[in-house]
# Entry
Amino acid sequence: MREQDHATGLPSIALPYGPNASNGKRDDDTIEVLSIPATDRVAADPLADVLACLGVDQVQYAAARYAAAVNGTDSAAELVAAGLIDEALLADTVAETLRLRRPDAPPPAIAEVGLAGSRRILRTAEPTPRVLIAPRLEDLVPVVDFLTAKPFLARQTEVASLRELDTARAEATRAERSDLARLSLSRDRLDLSARLTVTGSQGFVAALVLTGMLALVLFTWWGGVAAHLATLLLYLGCIALRFGAAIDLLRTSGGRRELIHVAACQERHPTYSVLVALRNEGPDTVGTLVEALDMLRWPRSKLQILLICEADDAATVAVVREAIRGRPCFRLEEVPPSHPRTKPKALNFTLPLATGEFVALFDAEDKPSPDQLLTAWAAFRAADASLACVQAPLVVTNGTKGWLPAHFALEYAALFFGLLPWLAERRMPLPLGGTSNHFRREALVAVGGWDSHNVTEDADLGMRFSRHGYRTGTIASPTCEEAPLRWRDWRNQRTRWMKGYAQTWLIHMRKPATLMRELGIRDFCVFQLLFAGMLLSSALNTVVLALLLRDLGGLLVHGWLGRTQGLLLALDGLVLVAGFGTYATLATLCSRRSGRTGILREIWTLPAYWLLVSLATLRALYQLWRAPQLWEKTPHGEAARRVRADERQRRPDTIPSIGAAVPLLER
# Structure
């Protein structure tokens, strides 16, 4: 098996420029971790010169070697991750020690990204070819011996940092990645992409069905009754899912069993990539985000955090660049401006640069729990390869700031602590929440990544996982975020969500028979309730309320109703009470489980909130016709606060780092 190179998870082999390729090769699986005593002397000549110039003493280097042996990296990666040396300064020092040049500028063209797949060597395609190398400290002696034996190669060889080589490769693929991200699924599977909102056959069937239903309602006495009963059945189906989740919570009063990280685990941590898309964000939001991500408990040499901005969003780019200064595991990626201007397009553009075995996705306003990566990794380790994704719960922290955020917080509690875990435990289709998703990178790539044209790419991705035979789980390590405070912001966000759900339903219903075959009858019905059921019930809330008020008014004015009308009124009342009671029970249980009980006093005004959801849904259906890819961004940072210093949690000693090897070493 090929080793995992540096902190990236990319497969590589030993650098092929030694006098004997095996001299430079490290077999990470055979390293004796405890065979590196703290008093081990550093090697002489080039290595000693480099360490002396960088101010790294023998104790620090021994600690770096120990951490590298445990993490499967190299000593330079651990020194850089610990903040003891700067990566560019390291390249300068190595070049000066080896009497080699440093590249004056990024190479204009690349002939070969690496020899035998190595991330540490790159050949340019200029009139005078150059070879750029980023040797490990452990490989300096073989490099010197090789270049001494072949001086003609020394004249073509330059020393670069690993980040500079990665940047050169990213620039070389920038145009190609931009085109692929813009087209995404529509390039190969237009039938699974929201780039085409409605097919001709779908439009024909929809027109035929709507015309027939309207004719029955207007011209037959029983047509209206049948439509009314069908609507009630739809409501009952949606209620049934939440009723099942509520009953499950009542039965597990001690709390749902969660997979957690075992501190004593000696298994080597894989590389984890974190993606965050940012647009029009201010210093407070970005600063709070960076502080929160910097608290994640994971070996820093195995953590890659990519902050993604639109290239023409100069203000956010400048803020991000300043916020991540001096943080080695952070990197800024700029997306070329193109349509559609959506979050999934930015994620697709950056995904090829993500080098982790696992990929996490967060939003700009998120504050994930420091142990969330560990919890997600524990869930993946305990499952087989069919577990493609785990969803962490989202907790609204400003639910007491007003009526709208209170109901938003109730929704989130019921969804992330109730409905989604219930669906996941039964391996049903699960619409992802758009943030705090943790993926197996291999599975994410296998299903085509995100659909750049879908404005709720998360829900669509969850369905594609199910259709490809994967499953999605949940974990209990939360992410905190803030709800919109203003009506306009809430309306725009809810409009986008509902429009994306409509897009997702239309996409997957283009071939209903195929969908049923891939999902099975049970999951096919669940899909209908999660998407069509939610859309139709939300849109019809205003209609149902109007009919209910009409019948009540007739009863009060005339003192009686016809048999059919009275029966329908009674059924409407029963469904309304059942829906309110089920949702209130689920929201109450989940709010207590999430520790946010201050929002429960607003639960009695739930019907009024449902009417607002209905208005947003009607607006979404209009936008689906007029502007299907419009992304109305939600402002973040209502009161973006710096993460308090007393909330910082040190990484545990069981996660190997230089600090773990030498406890008194300053970070």
Notes: Residues 432 and 459 are 5 Å apart (CA to CA).
